[in-house]
Amino acid sequence: MVSEEIVVSTRKGLFRVVRNTRHWDIDSVEFLGDNVSLALTDARSGFGYAALDHGHFGVKLHRLTGDGWQEIAAPTYPQKPEGLDEKDMWGRPIPWSTQRIWALAAGGAGEPGVLWCGTVPGGLFRSTDHGDSWTMVRALWDHPKRTQWMGGGADWPGIHSIIVDPCNPRRLWVAVSTGGIWFTDDAGESWSQRGEGMRAEHVPPELTSDPIAQDVHCLVQCPAAPERMWVQHHNGIFVSSDEGRTFREITGVKPSAFGFAVVVHPRDPDTAWFIPGIKDEKRIPCEGRLVVTRTRNGGKSFDVLTNGLPQHYAYDLVYRHALATDSTGDLLTFGSTTGGLWISEDQGDSWLCVTHTLPPIYAVHFV
Amino acid sequence: MVKILFTANIQRHVACPETEADGANLREVLDNAFKENARARSYVLDDQARLRKHMTIFVDGHALRDRVRLSDPVTPGSVVYIYQALSGG
């Protein structure tokens, strides 16, 4: 069914955009003035979740049920062992404290209360009661290689992508910036590194091909063909056809292969969309032209989609959670750091601007 | 008993009325105070029970010294103010 509602997480509130007869319009705002870093609508329960970062007062989580919004438990790190001298790759003590909620994912269809939450500085948490309580996945946090994860754009490393296997919810992939891709087939009891074949430009040559050195910006999986995964990486676009064991780099993508976001068509693993920027040190659209790139053939070629997007003096950057497709793959939406929100109803061939005056947009999803 | 007063800015998120609690130091006083208001605890203290980065506490007019263990002493009749910086854009 085609979606008729979009949830938009912004620096100053949570906005709902709904489809009217001919237009998409902003319908309501919740948490106005507060920093909503991420939101999830759980299709199984219908519950909504919103992660708020109050800065001085910490990171909080709220849940929307038929009774309205209610603050629920936020993931909390365990007591750091006395005397533990744990430092990151920069030599700084790693905080055992939730700095940011960076990923929220619903569990499998047969486990209705299960939620997964990825955080900065790298803890993965699981809830079995719709978020009333959270338990850290210790096997990943205690993995001896976890201290090799590095902060990139943020001070500390974080889990930003969580993928639950549509056929078996005990199988999960998570992606870390920076720390590559990690996989479990026993609901988090044990973990192994995935992601051979990716290439990192930001490390010394001997580490370039090391899967743990990879700065995956976003990892997605095609629900209808779970073996197919796409990665928007810090220095390129990579595709896997074996559940993330190995990746192949897609080169020659114009106008650029740099970006944060990627989505894949839910039924066609060869169709994926990206929103490029110039490069890591210039995180703006190439030549001031906001474009979406789309491949329909697994990366052999790309369309540069511009119809309805600003092509002069546009400096919108689109974060990793701020591009989404609906369950049909026909609708797309994305929001930018400069408060622009666009929707396409034809797989990106044309775009409608809902508004360009929202606060900075962190995340979007279709309900 | 020690009197505890909270910043007005926290009240928008969680009700923190003026309260009283016993204790020989700040840690004991706050632990006792938060028994009655568990939600407020996570707004003031982080996962490791340290004072959050941009929060501060005054005891009888003096800013606390130990943000990690909250070992600053208090005496019966002390007045504790819990404040935060406001910044951002």
Task: Report on this structure.
- The complex is a heterodimer of chains A (367) and B (89).
- Chain A is mainly β.
- Chain A has one helix at residues 138-141, and strands at 5-10, 13-19, 24-30, 36-41, 48-53, 59-65, 68-72, 100-106, 115-120, 124-127, 135-136, 158-164, 172-177, 180-184, 192-194, 216-222, 225-233, 236-240, 248-250, 258-264, 272-277, 292-295, 303-305, 323-325, 332-335, 341-344, 352-355, 361-366.
- In chain A, the strands form seven sheets. Chain A has a four-stranded antiparallel sheet, with no helix packed on it. Chain A has a four-stranded antiparallel sheet with strand order 4-5-6-7, with no helix packed on it. A four-stranded antiparallel sheet of chain A has the order 8-9-10-11.
- Chain A is globular, with a radius of gyration of 19 Å.
- Chain B is of the alpha+beta class.
- Chain B has a single domain (2-84), classed as Ubiquitin-like (UB roll), CATH 3.10.20.
- Chain B is 19% helix and 24% strand.
- Chain B is built from two helices and five strands.
- A five-stranded mixed sheet of chain B has the order 2-1-5-3-4.
- Chain B is globular, with a radius of gyration of 12 Å.
- Chain B starts with a strand and ends in a 5-residue tail after the last strand.
- The A-B interface holds A 54-58, 60, 71, 74, 76-77, 79-80, 95-98 and B 10, 13-14, 39, 42-44, 46-48, 52-55, 84-88.
Features:
heterodimer; A: 367 residues; mainly beta; 4-stranded antiparallel sheet; 1 helix; globular; B: 89 residues; alpha+beta; Ubiquitin-like (UB roll); 5 strands
- So what's the overall shape of chain B? globular
Multimerization status:
heterodimer
What structural class do the secondary elements of chain A suggest?
mainly beta
CATH class descriptor of chain B: Alpha Beta
Mean pLDDT over the full residue set of chain A: 95
* Number of beta-strand segments of chain B: 5
- Please bin the fraction of helical residues of chain B: 10-25%
Main sheet properties of chain A: 4 strands, antiparallel
